[in-house]
Amino acid sequence: AQRVTQPEKLLSVFKGAPVELKCNYSYSGSPELFWYVQYSRQRLQLLLRHISRESIKGFTADLNKGETSFHLKKPFAQEEDSAMYYCALKVRNQGGKLIFGQGTELSVKP
Amino acid sequence: DADVTQTPRNRITKTGKRIMLECSQTKGHDRMYWYRQDPGLGLRLIYYSFDVKDINKGEISDGYSVSRQAQAKFSLSLESAIPNQTALYFCATSAAGGYGYTFGSGTRLTVV
Question: Does the pLDDT value for residue A51 go beyond 80?
Answer without folding.
Answer: no
